[in-house]
Amino acid sequence: MATIKLEIVTPEAKAYSDDVDVVTLTGIDGEMGIYPQHMPLMTQLVAGEIHARKGAENIFLAVGDGFVQVTGEKISILTDMAVRAENIDEAKAEEARQRAEARLAGKLSDEELASVSASLAHSLVQIKVKRRTTK
After folding, report:
1. Pair (53, 111) in one structural domain
2. Measured CA distances, 5 to 19, 40, 49, 123 (Å)
3. CATH number, domain at 120?
C-alpha cells in the first residue's frame, strides 16, 4: 500500500515525521482525510486533533492553529503546538484550562486576550484528545 510522509513542525522542534497510510485533520473548511497522491492543497489548520494511521497503529496528536501544505508525497504541517496523546498530562492541561478561564474573566489588553485565548484552546484540545484516546 502507498504511504504519504507526514511532517509536523512546531517552533520548538519537529513533533512528528513518518510515512503513514492516511491522515485526518481539521482545516478551516472542516475535517478532511488525506491519502497518498492527494491533490496539492494549502489550507489553514484549526486547533484540534490529528489522527494518522500507519498499518494497524493509530497515532493521535493534539495540535494548535497553523498551516497545512499537501503534495502527492508529503503533508507538511506548521503549528504552534503538537503533542502526541500519550504525552498529554491531563491534570496539567486541566490546570492550564482553569488558569486561562480565570484570566479571561479579568480585564485584558488585545494582545493578552489573544495569548490567553490560545492557551485555553491548547488546553481544551489536549483534554479532548487525551480523554478520547483513553476510553
Report:
1. no
2. 4, 14, 18, 27
3. 1.20.5
| pLDDT tens string 71-129 | 989 999 999 999 999 999 999 999 999 999 998 888 888 898 888 998 999 999 999 99
Domain boundary among 85, 103, 124: 85
Domain range for 66 is 4-85
Q: Which three cell numbers stand for residue 32?
A: 478532511
CB neighbour list of residue 109: distance below 8 Å, 6 or more residues apart: none
How do strand 74-79 and strand 4-9 relate by DSSP bridges?
Answer: parallel
H or E element that contains 133: helix 110-133
Q: Residue 97 carries which DSSP code?
A: H
What span, in angstroms and rounded, lies between the C-alpha atoms of 97 and 39?
A: 37
% helix / strand / coil in the chain, to the nearest 5?
30, 40, 25
